[in-house]
Amino acid sequence: MEEFIMTQEAFDRLWQRVQGAEPAPPRQNQTDTLRRFLDDTAQALALERRLQARCAELSPLCRETFSRLRRLRAAYYLQTGERYCPPETCSVRGGLLPDLRADCLASRARAERYAASAQSVPDDLHALFETLSAEEQTHSERLAALLCRLL
Hints:
Elements (H helix, E strand, L loop, with lengths): L7 H12 L8 H25 L6 H22 L15 H23 L4 H28 L1
Helix pairs in contact: 2-3, 2-4, 3-5, 4-5
């Protein structure tokens, strides 16, 4: 028979649900981490949407970024019970190629931050961050391939 091991935090949340008590508010650093990822992903989406006007091949990548943003919003809502809509700011720097390069490098950095953050969050966010890290890595590879085709 398999042994099931549960973290103390997961056990406390489960026990509170069994007792019918309100769940404890999430630790502030988890909320801050989610907000930073939400802000960063919203900024990437805004940039990709603007660049999409100049390069139609970005459409599927925009949809993927939007999907990641929605999952982060859902995780934030589950953690806090509040909706958070990050501002859509876009800093288009110049030409298509420099902006694609910046987006590619930012995507790689996000993948690394997701992987690093996954080590210090509860199981539910750990799984999400691990998934998002892999997706961001693939996203950056696809952006790099697009850059190669355009050069």
